[in-house]
Amino acid sequence: MTKILSTYTYLGDRMTDPTLKGQLCTAVMNGDKCIRGTNGNMLVQFENGRVANVIGRLLRKVNTEKQATSN
User: Fold this and answer.
1) What residue segments make up the domains of the chain, in order of their start?
2) What's the CA gap between 38 and 16, in Å, rounded?
3) Which residues of the chain form beta strands (DSSP E)?
4) What predicted TM-score, i.e. pTM, was given to this entire model?
5) 13-70 pLDDT, tens per residue?
6) 2.30.30, 2.60.120, 3.30.420, 3.90.1200: CATH of 7-62
7) Which pLDDT value is given to residue 51?
8) Could you give the 3-state DSSP secondary structure of residue 56?
């Protein structure tokens, strides 16, 4: 069984570390579900290895199937 990773772009806000704005990140999974808080936060891991708890509304899903076919 192949795992499909949920990839997102983090938009950030005015309080966000500037190095994280616009970065790609993947959801941290617990089994087959992503880890979400009751207040809408989501645990993600950025490409540089940094793990952060971010506001889910500031994440935009990246369609990986389109990227794979366009390359």
Assistant:
1) 7-62
2) 21
3) 7-10, 24-27, 29-30, 33-34, 41-46, 51-55, 59-61
4) 0.78
5) 999 999 999 999 999 999 989 999 999 999 999 999 999 999 999 999 998 665 455 5
6) 2.30.30
7) 96
8) helix
**Contact present, 34 and 6 (Cβ < 8 Å):** yes
User: Buried b / exposed e across 6-20, counting CB within 10 Å, b at 16+?
Assistant: bbbebbbeeebeeeb
Q: What is the CA radius of gyration of the chain?
A: 13
List of residues 6+ apart from 66 with CB closer than 8 A:
none
Would you say residue 71 has pLDDT above 90?
no
pLDDT digits (tens, 9 = 90+) for 6-15: 899 999 999 9
Helix residue ranges per DSSP H, 16-55: none
